[in-house]
Design brief:
The complex is a heterodimer of chains A (165) and B (300). Chain A has eight helices and no strands. With 165 residues, chain A is mainly alpha-helical. In chain B, strands 1, 2, 3, 4, 5, 6, 7 and 8 form an eight-stranded antiparallel β-sheet that branches. Classes of the chains: A mainly alpha (165), B alpha+beta (300).
Chain lengths: 165, 300
């Protein structure tokens, strides 16, 4: 009995991993609309490369593509959303600590945000992040260290809030 | 704030703001097919070189959305580049690149055999059968020895963009300068050539051979960058002069996406020693980086 077609395999991966990849994109670009665009574009590139990617490398390749697309998107001028595209449901209110975190993330370089997303959202190890981004483990360590230092400097009060619970 | 705190905060922030996932795999599949057909048209179109070379411009990554603005750009495409794109055969790239590099650099440096790789946009190495999908190709000589030559041709908007004069000024300023020298020159065809010298050492914790850049301060004080000190590896913070490599490169930005670089890499204990040991003149590196026949079409 023949196995699933490449399209079927890709669809399965898309639906299973798409939301998680979009979250990574969101942390880098900090806008859900842009994260949608980035994820769709990255998935298109992933589909084109699908026939030659080994199954054990798909996840790392997909993460790398999403991160590269997200960083490229930041470099491009942000397009204005026409009024017809504005969702009719109001955006969820972001709690104060979310605004603080969002502002603090905005202080990081795009690659640092990507590394923070992969390490603390996806729980990847240093080696896995390095493989996903195609950089040296030393780069991951240094960027993580610098990113955390920046976040700590701008979010000290959140530790106090946690401790009072 | 602990890492656990950050993990909790980050997940909470993402999950409370996340809208419903409505992306569809069919859209990516359809876009992927269209991109493949578009690339096939562009590559075939490049073979139909007209007097205006429009197809070559598209294939070379020069033509943008407004074709009328690219008329001047079309005039700047070297005739040999048009021919190279029209006759482009990725399987012949290693031999083509090797012969051109040998002609330019051979008189100054014994090159040895070429190590050729083709990579996609995500820098993943491509098998030979898929070299036509390459976003970049590289030719390396000297392996992991003390004296090497690297040449790279690639399409990357991120690498091509940015004012080179500004980059040179910023990269050579202060004790954290990661370039020891940098000069940008606009060539007669409008492309920009940047000549740089930098220092680095191989990352001992990374088996894939990444380099760790050394700043001017690192060289002056004889210390490694602080973030490279991994307690689990028990590495010294002193920089061993025997570990240091110096890189002199010429990089040419040809278009919005196409960048070529040629660089000589050698082991030397100091900057002054390196300057005395570079064998390949900058003019020869520039000859490679500006060679009109060393070109690949953009990946899509």
């Amino acid at each position: 009995m023949p196995g699933p077609s490449p399209e079927a395999e890709f669809e399965e991966f898309f639906l299973a991993r798409g939301p998680a990849l979009r979250r990574i994109a969101y942390v880098v670009v900090r806008d859900w609309h842009v994260a949608d665009d980035v994820t769709q574009s990255a998935m298109t590139k992933l589909y084109r490369a699908w026939p030659r990617i080994r199954s054990e490398s798909v996840e790392a390749y997909a993460r790398r593509t999403v991160v590269n697309e997200a960083i490229s998107a930041i470099r491009r001028p942000r397009r204005e959303w026409p009024s017809a595209d504005v969702p009719d449901t109001p955006a969820p209110e972001i709690a104060d600590h979310g605004l603080d975190l969002d502002r603090a993330l905005g202080l990081l370089a795009p690659q640092q945000r990507a590394i923070v997303a992969l390490r603390f959202l996806d729980d990847l190890s240093v080696a896995e992040v390095a493989a996903a981004l195609g950089v040296a483990e030393g780069t991951v360590k240094s960027q993580t260290s610098r990113g955390l230092a920046t976040l700590r400097a701008h979010l000290p009060h959140l530790v106090l809030t946690e401790d009072l619970r | 704030m602990t890492e656990h705190d950050l993990r909790t905060l980050l997940r909470d922030h993402v999950e409370t703001t996340e809208p419903t996932f409505t992306l569809r795999p069919a859209d990516s599949i359809g876009d992927g097919h269209r991109a493949r057909r578009r690339r096939q048209f562009v590559v075939r179109g490049a073979a139909l070189v007209t007097a205006g070379g429009v197809a070559a411009a598209v294939a070379f990554g020069i033509a943008g959305g407004d074709r009328s603005q690219d008329v001047n750009a079309l005039d700047n495409i070297h005739p040999m580049t048009k021919v190279a794109l029209a006759e482009y055969d990725p399987q012949k790239l290693p031999g083509l690149i090797d012969s051109h590099i040998e002609a330019a650099v051979g008189p100054y440096l014994a090159l040895g055999p070429i190590a050729f790789t083709a990579s996609d946009e995500q820098h993943a190495e491509l098998p030979r059968a898929r070299w036509d999908e390459a976003a970049s190709v590289s030719a390396r000589y000297g392996g992991t020895g003390d004296h090497r030559l690297d040449v790279r041709l690639g399409h990357s908007r991120g690498e091509a963009e940015g004012d080179r004069d500004t980059r040179c000024a910023e990269a050579t300023r202060g004790p954290d300068a990661f370039l020891l020298s940098c000069e940008a020159t606009t060539l007669s065809d409008g492309s920009v050539a940047v000549t740089e010298v930098s220092a680095a050492f191989p990352d001992p914790t990374d088996p894939t051979g990444f380099w760790i850049a050394l700043t001017r301060e690192n060289l002056e004080k004889g210390t490694k960058p602080r973030w490279t000190l991994d307690p689990s590896v028990n590495s010294s913070k002193r920089l061993d002069p025997a570990e240091i490599f110096f890189i002199r490169s010429v990089e040419v930005v040809h278009s919005e996406t196409f960048v070529t670089s040629a660089r000589e890499v050698l082991r030397a204990p100091t900057y002054d020693a390196a300057l005395g040991r570079f064998d390949v003149p900058v003019t020869a590196l520039q000859q490679v980086a500006t060679d009109p026949e060393l070109v690949i079409p953009p990946p899509d």
